[in-house]
What we know:
Layout: H1 3-7, H2 11-15, H3 21-41, H4 49-65, H5 70-78, H6 80-102, H7 109-132, H8 139-158
Helix pairs in contact: 3-4, 3-6, 4-7, 4-8, 6-7, 7-8
Amino acid sequence: MSLTERAAINRGTFYAHFADKYALTELIVEDTFMTTVYQQLQSQEELTSEALRNLIIAVCRFFEQLCTDTSCRRTVQAISALIETKVKSRLEQLVSNWLVERAAKPEAEERIQWAAVMVSQSIYGAACLWNARGRKSSAAVFADDILHFLLPGLEAAIGQKV
């Protein structure tokens, strides 16, 4: 049964909302990731070490949600560049927003952007490696481990403790 049949809508109506299958895939990836993030963060809207820890755990949860059977793994592998781009972009946005709100010196905008890029890239890369190596520790233990590397740089970027 096709997606449009299950949704009980006309195929033309469904695809009128998306330029192509890639646009639909981008939306699904981004929506799945952000849903995972919001569930993990709940109502944490400012940068704290606990919020950053929960963000790391959310990225791990996202990786855990990706398919594990062989056919699905091939699909995920085929769109891995899209997944990486979307997830890193959303991570950078979240971290940047947190940093801007916490920055002691508003004129440090460039440093804040650098920090947001480095933190988002670091979280994604480390979580990707954690996933590829078989998730030997829990997401929470993993988050605690990498948090020690991230916090000093963030605190230097915003000029205060996180």
